[in-house]
Every structure is written in C-alpha cells, then in structure tokens.
Amino acid sequence: MPNPTDPSPHQRRNPTTGLDVSALSAGAQVTLWGIREWVDCAHNRRDVAAGLRVNFQQLRHPRLAIDLLDEWMSTLSAGAVRNVRICRHTCSCVNVDEQLLLEALQGLERGEITTAPSVLRPLLRGGLARAFCRSALLYVEELNASGATLVGRRYLQAVT
Fold first, then answer.
1. How far is residue 128 from each of residues 132, 133, 142, measured CA to CA in Å?
2. Is the pTM of the predicted complex or chain greater than 0.90?
3. Phi, psi angles (nearest 5°) of residue 110
C-alpha cells in the first residue's frame, strides 16, 4: 500500500522549495509569473511579448522589461546545461530551479554583480551565466525604477 506521505510523481519530477508564491515580494511575483508565461509561450509557440504584456503594464517601461526578460530567458533556454524545470501558473509553490533564478536576480538587485553568475552554476556555465546576468541586471533596474523589488517578502514588516 502506498505511503500517503510519499511525494507524488509530479513532486518527484518537480521538487518545490516549500516557499509559497504569495509570500514573494510583488517584483518577485511579477518576475516568476513572467518566467512561467515565457516558458508556456515558448512551449506552445505563442508570441512571448503578447503573453507578457498584460502583467507587465504596471511597469514604467513594460516593453523594455518584456524584451529584457525575453533576452535572459532565451539565454537560459539556449545554454542550459540540463533541463530547467519551471512550474505552470497554477502551481502555488516555487520550485528549486525557479528559486535559483530568483536568487540570482535578487543578488543582482543587492549589487552582487560578480557573485550572481555563480548562483546560476547548476543551470548555466561561464560566459552564458554572465550574459544572462547582464540582461537580467537591466531587467532588475527596470523593475526597481517602477517601484517593484525582488528582495523581501510581503509579510515581513518593520516595526518600532
């Protein structure tokens, strides 16, 4: 008889971090949604820009953010050293590969320009990780200029 605590076949193929999407900052949620939408568009041969447009409208320059996300996701897609697992929109948790991407972007936001490529080492190597980070840094700067941040979680508040 199967053990009810054993992970499902989906969970074994797509391990999650236990982090709920709703706990992410607004910028991280928009970014994760964008990553998931980009993969869905690429998989179903739909126009990426059209797919991302709705959720990126709140940004100062939505077209620039879309182009930059498309650039770094294209770099990841073309140069990944292994299959990168990205969840569907309906998944409420962040998986391990999504977390790596968000950690690299958060590192860029914190100014960790030289160390961010090493976070991507399980997914990208050398020059491709640096190329990813160059366009991702511009994306992060665009998010920040629009008032959205990747660092922090929504439920954390400073109290005095």
1. 6, 9, 21
2. no
3. -80, 0
Amino acid sitting at position 56: F
Q: Which helix (H) or strand (E) holds 67?
A: helix 62-79
Q: Which of 72, 61, 10 is nearest to 38 (CA)?
A: 72
Q: What one-character-per-residue DSSP string does 34-58 give?
A: HHHHHHHHHHTT--HHHHHHHHHTT
* Rounded-to-integer distance, Cα 144 and Cα 15, Å: 30
Q: Give 90-144 pLDDT, tens digit per residue.
A: 999 999 999 999 999 999 999 999 999 999 999 998 899 999 999 999 999 999 9
The DSSP bridge partners found for residue 153 are 24
Distance CA 60, CA 56 (A): 9
The residues facing 20 across adjacent strands are 93
**Do residues 62 and 53 lie in contact, with contact meaning Cβ atoms separated by under 8 Å?**
yes
Let me know: does 142 contact 64? Beta carbons within 8 Å: yes
Residue with tokens 């969840």, as numbered in its chain: 87
Q: Find out whether 109 and 140 touch, Cβ atoms under 8 Å.
A: yes
- HEC string for 123-143: CCCHHHHHHHHHHHHHHHHHH
User: Cβ(73)–Cβ(84) under 8 Å?
Assistant: no
